[in-house]
Design a protein that fits this description.
mainly alpha; about 280 residues; 11 helices
Length: about 280
């Protein structure tokens, strides 16, 4: 794969993975609208792995806290002491991940390619962008991340299943769900980003095994390069997103989604052969 395409993929993935604008949709649009060869699902996962390392590094305190809580839990069970808050957070993330594991397997096996169309991406980008705006503007900001109940975590997990449709945005739909629950913007983003860790790990293990079986050293080298670049872009994007949400809303992302979604729907129905 040409280095220019690798750089574009890494930039698109790194910047869009944790913003509520759909990284998968953008990764599909790059070859469709840019006249480039489709990078395939394996390269998609490679850039996801790069962003996984970025989110784990950014939230290293949470990662260490949950790991320590799990270790301490064994002793606490014997002594009947209260579990650490980080332990409950870990369980909520696990619970929220279960629905997408089942749904992801079914979609990947039976209909993954059927969803990678301009029509689907366009309508999903537009519709779920509007839903994000509704959740952000019509719900009170009264809860922090630790106030998310197990029922709320499962609700967010069910909503995450919808993100298997390209253009929906995993980050966007989970932040939307959290905002409907009244969670503060920054905490909604934090829970969404932490929830991305097990989801990306699952996809990475599945497709990483396919990459290993291919035995293609050129493909492997491309994957490592794009993952490293995506890591750098993602780390910057996460930092800027969290700073932005301290004092502003999701409205700029909504406007971008409406403009992009409207353009894609127009291209799909009125200029299906158009490319940049």
């Amino acid at each position: 794969m040409p280095f220019t395409q690798i750089l574009i993929l890494a930039a698109v993935q790194g910047i869009t993975e944790f913003l509520p604008i759909s990284s998968s949709g953008h990764l599909i649009l790059v070859p469709k609208l840019g006249g480039l060869a489709d990078q395939g699902l394996l390269m998609d996962v490679a850039v996801h792995v790069g962003t996984l390392l970025a989110v784990m590094l950014y939230f290293w305190r949470d990662m260490i806290g949950m790991t320590g809580a799990l270790i301490r839990t064994f002793g606490q069970v014997a002594n009947r002491r209260r579990f650490d808050p980080e332990y409950w957070l870990f369980l909520k993330l696990v619970l929220a991940t279960l629905p997408v594991i089942v749904a992801g397997f079914l979609v990947n096996k039976y209909m993954g390619a059927d969803l990678r169309t301009l029509e689907v991406i366009g309508w999903a980008t537009l519709g779920f962008g509007i839903l994000l705006y509704i959740s952000d503007k019509m719900n009170m900001t009264v809860r922090q991340m630790e106030h998310i109940s197990f029922g709320g975590a499962f609700f967010i997990g069910l909503m995450q299943v919808i993100a298997l449709v390209p253009g929906t945005s995993r980050a966007g739909i989970t932040m939307t769900a959290a905002r409907f629950l009244g969670v503060e913007r920054q905490d909604a983003a934090r829970f969404s980003l932490l929830l991305s860790i097990p989801t990306i790990i699952g996809a990475g293990v599945l497709k990483g095994y396919e990459l290993y079986k291919s035995g293609d050293p050129v493909l492997l080298n491309d994957a490592v390069t794009v993952a490293g670049l995506a890591f750098l872009f993602a780390l910057i994007a996460i930092s800027l997103l969290m700073v932005w949400l301290r004092r502003a809303s999701f409205t700029p992302f909504v406007i971008y989604r409406i403009l992009l979604g409207g353009a894609l729907v127009g291209i799909a129905y009125y200029a299906p052969d158009f490319t940049f």
